[in-house]
Amino acid sequence: MRFLSRRLVMPNDLNFAGSLFGGRILEWIDEEAYIFASCQLEAKSLVTKHIGEISFETSAFQGDVVEFGLEAKKVGRTSLSIACVVRNKQTKQTICEADDIVFVHIDPETRQPTPHGKTKEQLDKIPIEAP
């Protein structure tokens, strides 16, 4: 798994207890996973179909830098399944994991699923640039 992106936890990202709000991290995961899927498939017309179990392990606090590790798990004819791990950049402690995020490639005009034309083997060969 490659850690490709980072975010700074700001005051507006916190919950009432002063730690990173779970809803904010879910928003970030969906966005980061979309960017990853879009780059892997070289396609913009993707929609989130499914986000499986999310496991929260530790907290993050104001001033922490969190990083997002992403990898393609499964490639379907019209879909791509992704795993994401969010961890603290400094301590490397896992903050949360989402092991089953599914995006579907759609036709921009009909909004119906359409083949993306990629295989797992092709995606595994794509060089991934680190920030």
Present the secondary structure layout:
Layout: E1 2-8, H1 22-41, E2 46-51, E3 54-56, E4 65-75, E5 79-88, E6 94-105, H2 120-125
Antiparallel strand pairs: 1-4, 2-6, 3-6, 4-5, 5-6
Low-confidence stretches at least 5 residues in length (pLDDT < 50)?
none
CATH superfamily: Hotdog Thioesterase
Report the CATH architecture: Roll
Structural class estimated from helices and strands: alpha+beta
**Level-1 CATH class name:** Alpha Beta
Strand proportion: 35-45%
The figure for the number of domains is: 1
* Relative helix content: 10-25%
Structure characterization notes:
The model has no long low-confidence stretch (mean pLDDT 93). A hairpin with a 3-residue loop joins strand 4 and strand 5. The longest helix has 20 residues. The chain is 20% helix and 37% strand. It is an alpha+beta fold. Strands 1, 2, 3, 4, 5 and 6 form a six-stranded antiparallel sheet that branches. It is elongated and about 45 Å long. It contains two helices and six strands, in the order βαβββββα. It has a single domain, classed as Roll (Thiol Ester Dehydrase, Chain A). One of its GO terms (biological process) is fatty acid catabolic process. Keywords: Hydrolase. InterPro entries: Cytosol_ACT (IPR040170), HOTDOG_ACOT (IPR033120), HotDog_dom_sf (IPR029069), Thioestr_dom (IPR006683). Belongs to the acyl coenzyme A hydrolase family. One of its GO terms (cellular component) is cytosol.
